[in-house]
Amino acid sequence: MAVTRGFTGRDRRGGDDRLPPGQYDTGAGWPTLTAELTPQVDVDTWTMTVDGLVDTPTTWDWRGVHALPGSTYFGDIHCVTTWTKFDTTFTGVSVDTLLEVTGVRPEATHVFATATTGYTTNLPLADITGGKAWLVWEFDGKPLTPEHGGPVRLLVPHLYFWKSAKWITRIELRDHDEQGFWERNGYHDRGDPWLEQRYQGDA
Amino acid sequence: MTASADEVLPEPVASSWTTATVREVEHVGSSFVKLRLEVVDRHDHVPGQHYVVRLRAPDDYTAQRSYSIASDPADPLVEIMVERMPRGEVSGFLHEVVEVGDELEVRGPIGRWFVWGGTTPSLCVAGGSGVVPFVSMMRHARRTGTEPLLRVVASAQTRDRLPYADELEEYGAFIALTRENQPQADGPERVAAHIYPDELVPLADGIERAYVCGSVGFVSFVGRILGEAGVRSDAVRVEQFGPTG
Predict the structure, then answer these.
(1) Are B7 and B119 in contact (CB under 8 A)?
(2) Where are the domains of chain B?
(3) A105 and which of A38, A53, A167, B157 could share a cystine (Cβ 3.0–4.6 Å)?
(4) What is the pLDDT along chain B (245 residues), one digit of tens a residue?
(5) What angle do CA B14, A78, A64 make, to 5 degrees?
């Protein structure tokens, strides 16, 4: 499309190839985008369930997930509202570890993640396996705060951040794709920031 | 997180980018600029939806931001109200450079959650520039004669930081300024303060939904007092902005 008259944009010398198209570096900030009030999730009653097309549906409590081998993500996160945050550190457990416990039935192709608030999001199974997704409860060495999804959220950092469901409580494996909350409300089913898959209808 | 059955959600627009011509530019107070846009191949919006505005540099670098729509769907132009952000790449450009006749890339309307279809008794609570989507709802309510279904509360530090203050007042919105005393027609002035629970409780009576739009801190504060006023958290729809540090 046409150039906007008079627009040059921010200084791009030494342009950063870690920034996906249409994103900006939010620096030390960490904006939030939430459709609901932030819930107070009690770790004494919180549970995490992986079920659906698995061999052994399993529910962990707070102590149970912490007893699993831990895992840390160090890298960038990208929000569809156009901020990118570089060099974040999240600690929790790899989704692969959960799926090793439950097993995965061969017909499973997608997952449907649900938060304690009722928020949902859909993902291809391939996007949360192979070291690409985590359940996390620490950010930069400190407990994850409620407004950022604490005590525990899903982390799928290679996709736009609405896929990283806050206050996660369940992942169901399915043999079909079904749209979650933002996806039904016009956002993309997959959400790859490098392909700028922001809204339904984007390639 | 489900929509009530009586309400027709806007179709998700698989919208492509289109061109908008700036028809009016008006600086409002010290921190806002109102832009009124003529959008090519425009789709009707539902109050509460937003547009994305994208700026393109000669080397094809782009920057885009979302702006809530302030206009009524029946308005021939789409109105947005842009708050100047510190070092804002897009808001700074829209404040300083844009003139009538300029063309901008836009995409929208977007959003199917933070929308009011005109049938659900609702309370809107805005902090500062968070009032913009509620202005669209208010204008829609006035045109369709559904004002009794839509109550509006707006809070800001000062009147200068509250866009559409006159229009809000005329609608009968409750305004709470946190750093300025407000003269009242029918009694002593309201001393500068955040919204008190006592001020919100009567307005929350009988509503089926609450919309809250503002900064992260504001939304969290209003969420608490709505809870005290007996509003269920699953009846509250939120749109928030700004860093949490």
Answers:
(1) yes
(2) 18-110, 122-241
(3) A53
(4) 544 444 556 665 556 899 999 999 999 998 999 999 999 999 999 999 999 999 999 988 888 888 999 999 999 999 999 999 877 889 999 999 999 999 999 999 988 889 999 999 999 999 999 999 999 999 999 999 999 999 999 999 999 999 999 999 999 999 999 999 998 878 889 999 999 999 999 999 999 999 999 987 898 899 999 998 899 988 999 887 755 43
(5) 110
Angle at which helices B197-204 and B216-228 pack, to 10 degrees? 70
Asked if A118 lies within 8 A of B1 by C-beta distance, the reply is yes
CB B8 within 8 A of CB B2: no
Q: Is A70 an interface residue toward B (CB < 8 Å)?
A: no
- Please name the member of A24, A29, A38 whose beta carbon is closest to the beta carbon of B243: A29
pTM as predicted: 0.79
Please report, to the nearest 10 degrees, the dihedral formed by the alpha carbons of residues B134, B137, B143, B148 taken in order.
-90
Tell the residue number behind the tokens 């300029």, with chain if given: B102
* CATH class of the domain defined by A40-195: alpha beta
CATH architecture of B122-241: 3-Layer(aba) Sandwich (3.40)
Tokens of B143: 């045109």
Chain B residues touching A10 at Cβ < 8 A: 63, 89
Q: How far is CA A148 from the centre of its chain?
A: 11
Which residue in the block uniquely carries the two structure tokens 């063309």? B103
Q: Which of these, A154, A149, A161, lies nearest to A191 by C-alpha position?
A: A161
Take residue B216 and report the two structure tokens written for it: 């992260």
Residue ranges per structural domain of chain A:
40-195
The CATH superfamily holding the domain B18-110 is Translation factors (2.40.30.10)
| A184–B112 CB contact, under 8 Å | yes
Conformation bin of residue B234: beta by default, left when phi > 0, alpha when psi is -120 to 50: alpha
A6 vs B contacts (CB less than 8 Å): 93, 97-98, 102
